[in-house]
Amino acid sequence: MAAAGAGLALALTGCSSDDGGGDGGGGASSTADCSAFDSYGDLSGKTVTVYAGIVAPEDQPYMDSYKPFEDCTGATVNYTADKNFEQQIVVQAKAGNAPDIAIVPQPGLLQQLVATGKAVEPPKAVADNVDKWWGEDWKKYGTVDGTFYAAPSGASVKSLVWYSPKEFKDKGYEVPTTLDDLKSLSDKIVADGDHKPWCAGIGSGEATGWPVTDWMEDMMLRIGGPDVYDQWVAHDIAFNSEVPTQALDAVGDYLKNPDYVNGGIGDVSSIATTTFQDGGLPILDGTCSLHRQASFYASNFPEGTDVSENGDVFAFYLPGKTADDHPVLGGGEFNLAFADRPEVQAFQTYLSTDLWANTKAKASSDATGGGWISANTGLDTANLVNPIDQLAAGILQDPNTVFRFDGSDQMPAAVGSNSFWKQSTSWITGQSTKDTLDKIESSWP
Questions:
Q1: How far lies 45's CA from each of 40, 283, 339, 347, 401, in Å?
Q2: What is the Cβ-side half-sphere exposure of residue 431, based on CA atoms within 13 angstroms?
């Protein structure tokens, strides 16, 4: 389809909604180039329903990004958001009452939905777009039992370390390019004697402990490599086997090292009682230098904080074992369809294009100041106004990047959102690595 390569015809100048026949969803008209939508035909009077867990204010940029499709094809896209999406979408699918398209946030949930027998394969144009605009690793996460079902949507990068650019400049610290460099930097900050280098918090209500799982997943990728990581996630190797043990001990070299933590907050045990939202804030008052957390953490700094390369706080890529290694841990969403009507397939195709990725990026920048990226390689980072978004998108688009989805999100719920969290918390407060991993292993269903 023509729209597959139409992305940077985006330009957001040119045709008005009159060029596509019909105003679809009503409201303000789009100024997208409607020639990009010619192959979809006239869809006037047709409706596509979308269901997601992305609520206000993040929902508005999604609806705004649908406007060009609505205005140029005449279709209406009805978006519904629900904080209980992950539970309700399974109920709806099993009952045969699913939406046309669901924005699914985990590969594990995607597999569960496909297993209901109600999901449908996308048209060939969607698969072609994914082959063109995403890496094989991303397509794999939208594939179940060898059949491709869902194109990627948004993405997040978890392999980041937050720091103070001013401190690094004043003290001559350099951004590390290997894990050994990161360790040496930590030791140098200790030797300088001003404060402990790392700060962290893992408190998150019933989900307390999840930041440790991200740390361990990052170390699994770096110590074992992507293939062993995949085996671990799939339980082809035991949770308490050699490489996972090395990975959690590697996390302990940072989080359970009293010389390293918990800068500006307390001792090692204070990590368990500090919320993840507060864990990195000591960077701003100079009592901590380093905090490992995902790209979304930018929103936790107080209003007015300059989050940029030369600002109050910024982030760098958590390095691999060597400068050539580029493993990246992250998350993302996928567009899964439960109907194959022409208007649904046309909308699916639009969502898999670089045109949509750039439209959505601009909509997010305009509505919320950013906070959204995609691993779509056709995304023009100039459409991202947020420096962290630009950094994260650049990491995802790096041809050397080997991306892996958050491991706990792919594991059975008894592990990924239960024992892994709980035992990680016990580990922080004194439980041994062996006991921690043995207990998680024994919980695997």
A1: 14, 54, 17, 14, 43
A2: 17
In DSSP terms, which residues pair with 80 in a beta bridge? 51
Mean pLDDT value across residues 156-170:
97
| 59: Cβ contacts below 8 Å, ≥ 6 apart | 52, 79, 81
Helix (H, G, I), strand (E, B) or coil at 144: strand
Question: Which among 356, 96, 31, 60 has a CA at the least distance from the CA of 348?
Answer: 356
Would you state the pLDDT for residue 367?
Answer: 85
Coil vs helix vs strand at 312: coil
Please say whether the dihedral angle defined by the alpha carbons of residues 172, 177, 180 and 186, taken in this order, is positive or negative: positive
Strands 47-52 and 101-104: parallel
Sign of the C-alpha dihedral computed for residues 60, 65, 66 and 70 taken in this order: positive
DSSP states of 211-269: HHHHHHHHHHHHHHHHHHHHHHHTTSS-TTSHHHHHHHHHHHHHHT-TTTTTTTT-STT
Q: Are strands 160-163 and 291-292 parallel, antiparallel or unpaired?
A: antiparallel
Rounded Cα gap, residues 303 and 181, in angstroms: 32
Residue 21 pLDDT: 32
Instruction: List pLDDT tens digits, range 409-429.
Output: 899 989 999 999 999 999 999
Average pLDDT in the chain: 92
385: number of Cβ within 10 Å: 14
CA 85, 86, 91, 97 dihedral sign is: positive
Are the beta carbons of 24 and 70 closer than 8 angstroms? yes
**Banded pLDDT at 33 (limits 50, 70, 90):** confident
Say how far apart CA 328 and CA 217 lie, in whole Å: 10
**Residue located via tokens 């359970």:** 256
Q: Report CA 388 to chain centroid distance, whole Å.
A: 13
Q: How far is the C-alpha of 389 from the C-alpha of 296, rounded, in Å?
A: 9
Neighbours of 181 (CB within 10 A): 14
- Phi and psi, residue 160, nearest 5°: -130, 150
User: Is the CB of residue 249 less than 8 Å from the CB of residue 433?
Assistant: yes
Express each pLDDT in 229-255 by its tens digit.
999 999 999 999 999 999 999 999 999
The CA distance from 178 to 195, in Å, is 23
Per-residue pLDDT band for 32 (boundaries 50, 70, 90) equals low
